[in-house]
Write a structure and sequence with these properties.
The protein is of the alpha/beta class. It is built from 11 helices and 13 strands. The protein has a single domain, classed as 3-Layer(aba) Sandwich (UDP-N-acetylmuramoyl-L-alanine:D-glutamate ligase), CATH 3.40.1190.20. α8 runs antiparallel to α10. The two termini are 20 Å apart. Keywords: ATP-binding, Kinase, Nucleotide-binding, Transferase.
């Protein structure tokens, strides 16, 4: 099976990028939960949740990152905090407000993809952007499940003049099955954000019958300045108003796909920040070479993750090796 980055790109090593101390800081809003992974007769618990995975991936790559989520002060909540601490994710103190820590049962199928069943609490209340933040990201359940999704939408509308905004719908029909309601939420956020990433499965569920290029056109016209559609083994379609690229994959032995899309997302955002491209993305001015470079970095990040169990994104050295 082929998953991940490849094709021609101007990246050699991460040495071309800016020093980590120069990165804008990130504020990630959304669910943190425990993945209960069922693989045959084995059951193992892992930290999970799409926004939390993105926060972890960014911090692991050297981006100062704060996470605003909703967990309980229970055993699973403490396990999530212990997971985040070593990479330096700062947990917003208001995150410790849930009655119980959310869970997702991920059952590995014979083709090694995961199917999910969720027990989620998401009602964070009023959200405020911390001072000095250069990137705000959200996605998945946090962007679609009320009442918290309304708080997220308000935060993003308020933050657009101040930061680069990123969104990954990462739809979960098992949690929010009303497609029209989810589509309305996605469309509303897509009109505010700069970076929109979705999978081909997301696109098929949200827009049945539309070609991927038509989905990309829809969101560029809505106001997003960079749209990426991941295509699993086929690579990625990535576009701005002026350029559109299809980057192929490279071979990798897949252990499972848990967290692959989140690792793509954190790799994409890391590449934008580390190359000093945030202002260019916000203004819609991004050269073709830079577009190819950030997409290649994102694909390489996902490729590392699928090569091992669970949502385990790369370190800087691992990402450099994957790009090498």
């Amino acid at each position: 099976m082929r998953v991940g980055g490849g094709g021609r790109h101007p990246l050699g090593t991460l040495g071309d990028m800016h020093a980590p101390s120069a990165f804008p800081s990130a504020f990630v809003v959304g669910e943190a939960l425990v993945d209960i992974v069922v693989d045959g007769d084995s059951t193992v618990e892992h930290p999970g949740g799409s926004p939390m995975n993105v926060a972890y991936g960014l911090a692991r790559l050297g981006v100062t990152t704060t996470l605003r989520t909703q967990i309980a002060q229970d055993q699973r909540g403490r396990a999530l905090e212990e997971h985040l601490a070593p990479v330096g994710v700062v947990l917003d103190p208001a995150s410790r407000s849930a009655e119980h820590t959310s869970t997702a049962v991920a059952t590995i199928q014979p083709d090694r993809h995961a199917e999910y069943e969720f027990d989620i609490e998401w009602a964070p209340g009023e959200l405020a952007l911390p001072d000095g933040v250069g990137l705000v990201h959200t996605g998945s359940i946090a962007s679609a499940l009320r009442p918290g999704s309304d708080d997220v939408a308000a935060l993003f509308a308020e933050s657009r003049p101040r930061a680069l905004l990123s969104f990954d719908p990462n739809v979960r029909p098992g949690v929010t099955p009303d497609r029209e309601a989810v589509l309305a939420t996605v469309d509303a956020l897509a009109s505010v954000v700069h970076v929109l990433k979705l999978s081909d499965e997301d696109a098929a569920w949200l827009h049945p019958g539309l070609l991927l290029d038509e989905v990309v056109d829809r969101y560029l016209e809505a106001g997003a300045t960079l749209v990426a559609v991941t295509r699993g083994a086929e690579g990625v379609l990535v576009a701005t108003a002026t350029d559109r690229l299809s980057l192929p994959s490279q071979p990798v032995d897949v252990v499972d796909t848990i967290g692959a899309g989140d690792s793509f997302m954190s790799g994409l955002l890391f590449a934008i920040l580390s190359r000093g491209l945030a202002d260019g993305v916000r203004s819609g001015v991004l050269g073709r070479g830079d577009l190819e470079a950030v997409a290649a970095t994102a694909l390489a990040s996902a490729r590392v993750t699928v090569s091992r169990a669970g949502a385990n994104p790369p370190t800087p050295d691992e990402l450099a090796a994957a790009l090498g």
